[in-house]
From TrEMBL:
It is a multi-pass membrane protein. GO terms for cellular component: plasma membrane. It comes from Clostridium tagluense. This is Phosphatase PAP2 family protein. The lineage of its organism: Bacteria, Bacillati, Bacillota, Clostridia, Eubacteriales. InterPro entries: PAP2/HPO, PAP2/HPO_sf. Keywords: Cell membrane, Hydrolase, Membrane, Transmembrane, Transmembrane helix.
């Protein structure tokens, strides 16, 4: 079991270095920090509030379910963060290109990715044609978190899984 965790950790660091160092360019230095904010609570709150206030009944229901999914997934993510206490990669790995953007010291799972997928999947479930936009944008949020050096790939993968799962459960049972 220890060997498996070491293998995953090694792969995690290698993938992070590829995204964080090898992809580095001026264009992504501008786009990725902006992209990461699509997974912020502020963006999701504004999006859901705007959708809720529109007179379309389906948008109203979608906005409520999105907020429920985001709240549940964020709560679970916070519990995992304080339970696992995995330090952010820029603390442990030298020579990362980082942009610290108001973060705590723990990285697992990625809260921005969790929120982005919670919202993206709910949007896709209610309006499938917009899934072709919302899901790739959520993926970009996850990639941006690695690009700016604040999350490992496994943080992002678990965040995406958490957001997707909570969205499907909220859509099905709420």
């Amino acid at each position: 079991m220890k060997a498996l965790f070491e293998y995953i950790s090694h792969r995690d660091i290698n993938i992070l270095r590829i995204i964080n160092n090898s992809w580095k360019c001026k264009f992504l230095d501008i786009v990725m920090p902006a992209m990461t904010y699509l997974g912020s609570f502020t963006f999701m709150f504004i999006f859901c509030t705007f959708a809720f206030l529109l007179s379309n009944a389906l948008l109203h229901v979608m906005a409520i379910r999105a907020m429920v999914s985001i709240t549940i997934s964020t709560g679970i993510g916070k519990l995992l963060k304080i339970s696992v206490t995995r330090l952010r990669p820029f603390i442990d790995i030298p020579n990362l290109n980082i942009k610290k953007i108001g973060i705590d010291k723990y990285s697992f799972p990625s809260g921005h990715t969790t929120g982005a997928f919670s919202l993206a999947v709910i949007v896709a479930l209610y309006f499938p044609i917009f899934g072709f936009i919302s899901i790739p944008l959520a993926c970009c949020v996850g990639i941006s978190r690695m690009y700016i050096g604040v999350h490992y790939p496994t943080d992002v993968i678990v965040g995406a899984f958490l957001g997707i799962t909570c969205s499907f459960l909220t859509y099905r049972f709420f």
